[in-house]
Amino acid sequence: MKNSTKASIQSIVHAQLAGLAVGVLACLFWCSGNSVAQAPSPDSPAIEAKAKAMVAKLTLDQKIKLIGGVDSMFTNDIPAINLPRLKMSDASVGVRTWGPTTAYAGGAALAATWDREFAKELGEALGRDARARGVNFLLGPGVNIAKAPVNGRNFEYLSEDPYLNGALVAPYIEGVQSQGVSATVKHYALNNEEYNRHNVDVTADERTIRELYLPAFEAAVKQGHVDAVMDSYNLINGSHATQNEFLNLKVLKGKWGFLGVLMSDWDATYDGVAAANNGLDLEMPSPRFMNQQTLSTAVKNGTVKEATIDDKVLRLFRLALRYGWLDRPQLDTTQSTYSIADREVALKGALKSITLLKNEGHTLPLDQSKVKTIAIIGPDAWPAVTGGGGSSEAASFAPISIVTGIGNLVGPDVHVLYARGLPEMGDVFWQTHWEKGLTESTYQNKTFSGAAETATPQNINNYKQEWWGPEDKTPRSIRYSASFEAPKTGKYLVLAAASESDHFTVSVDGKQVIEQAQVEGQHPESATVDMSAGQTIKVVADYLPGFVGNRFGLGVVNEEDMIAADAKKFASVADVVILAVGFNTTTESEGFDRSFTLPWGQDALVEAIAAVNPHTVVTFIGGGGFDTRRWLDKVPALVHAWYPGQEGGTAIAQVLFGKHDPEGRLPVSFDRSWQDDPSYAFYYPIKGADTKLHVMENNHPAVDYDIPHVKYDDKLMVGYRYWTTTGKHPLFPFGFGLSYTTFSFSNLNVPATATSGSTVPVSFDVTNSGATEGAEVAQIYVSDPSSKAKRPERELKGFEKVQLAPGETKHVTISLDARAFSYWDETKHDWTIDPGKFIVLVGDSSENTPLHADLTVN
User: Fold this and answer.
1) Distance (Å, whole) CA 90 – CA 494
2) What's the pTM?
């Protein structure tokens, strides 16, 4: 073969291969883009006609079958009409249900970013993760108001402010649904505590509900166009959410025009006929109440119309057709189950949310050239704590702890010393020496009365974490009586723990110091007792098991001796100490309220380490505010990292060493104590006001539930609304966060007058007046001093996150719509604006608004 001929053939082959490669790449690009860009189609006559035709092919029993779940996380299939089972997954911070996944900085951490663009990016990442697992319904986001810091589920939700929640939830939902996955906004509504969440009846007036607790759901429906809503467990004004006519029919499906599927939370239904008639479309995880036995009979006797059942099925069919779930597999193999791209999203979220609350003497950022030895101490330092517990808990493939994150950043030339600093809880129980013996008295009743069977164990160390167990058919109560002698003078920690529905009290010398009355779940409880050397205290613990077995632990330990010797030694030789404290999946979780104080022993740990090394930086992991009174004035820096997801350790290291400016801002007011919180007096059930709820379930005996009642008499005075209205101050205000640079605001421009209902432009300048690049959150608050109704002194009505280089100024314009000036008129049952004077305030927190201008609304 001649060289010229050979060259010619080679060129042809190369061209053909190149063309094939281009074609393959184009196909890959198109296929990938097509698989990702599968946002729901708008409703149309064609979709409506097809959905109705599908319904027409079904028997009543088939239709009823479709409005109850199956196998915990699926809807039922009907092969005859080509309807597959639709798959669900728990969510909020990751696609949890189907194995390891990417764990993000979501919920409260997302709110701390104050970043709409990132909210959408996070939603897109969660949507991709869902498609990689064949998930149709992502069971999130949660948008309930963070009414009180002890709510064990605040970390899943967003903020204390309805405007901020709504502004973030809409793009989050858009992001999820752009990937062909339905988001599910939850928990609708007034689910603001985990304490007895199944049975508590929340009473609130219409204005409070409309202005504070519903706007984020409204934004999810009207702006985010969410396709699924999940009802909450609790009762609202006397009726369970799953059968609440006002919320489900009048507001959600009526006033807001919601066209999607309204589902129950898992086992949140109590009456099949009432739920069917009052808007519930899908009972999960199974049809305990909205089943064929109940509803077939109800349709036949006329208590439920068949058209009501048809509407529920139509909603499901329209949604499935809108997303194309009948025409393509939901499992998208072009998406990565372990996604490197989504690890970057996880890191971005952690970086954007980390909030610097104290930085005395410019302790931070740390100068890497001056740090030769760093001690990392604390229970949250390792292993990584990515999120709280319960149904949102996401197991990530490779989570980065604070220890590994810092170690990776500083490299081999810096000595990294790690110590947990505290013993494990079981060690405290095991090692407690009851000086004069221990008696365990078991009574065959719940009242600690009559004859008891006694034993003399060496310790009280039966604790194990169990959510459920078999019913105890033999009533029991167990009393532990013991004496403890102090080997030396000091503070002693009394520590107790049990599981889930167990109840216990602990008394010291006849005075009760601990009570665990939780009805569903719980966390370890502790109390501090001052003792002199040789002093003996009498300890009595009364324990009521919730089900078969014994899961109770009790111990006493000297706080000074409790702190590990290696932790103190490491702190003494280190140039700087990073002290990692906070909560985790066992102390902050769905199913129980958490403590406002740090988990047991951590206050003592901070005090002890700060006494050894004044260069101690406290990093906190958790869902909101907590008690800092024992040690805040003893440490120079405090960093709130929320639950930072799987890349938290990397993000915390970058912020501590100045590789990234701390740009998070508080989405909640940070109280000094739980008792200082404005909702404290209106959070727990009213004593003596419990009622009974009689529940009938097919093929089961009737059950009478105890219904405690909580009255939201704090009304609108939740969080910063209370603090700014009263002129009092929390420890750190809503919207607050420090930076490594400085910002200033200037040139506010607001029109002098506006017509009622019109859009009002507000513009101003934000300048980075420091030497470091950073991001500021410009916040707009509106006051209505001339209102006929009593209103909070100010309310958040706009914000924008601004990224600025040193010396850079950006001009910001934000439009305030009619809602920014409105309140809910209970007489008109509608939003209204009182003409008169308004004040527009601009700044960087609810308490720091240096710019203000008057506006007259005609």
Assistant:
1) 36
2) 0.94
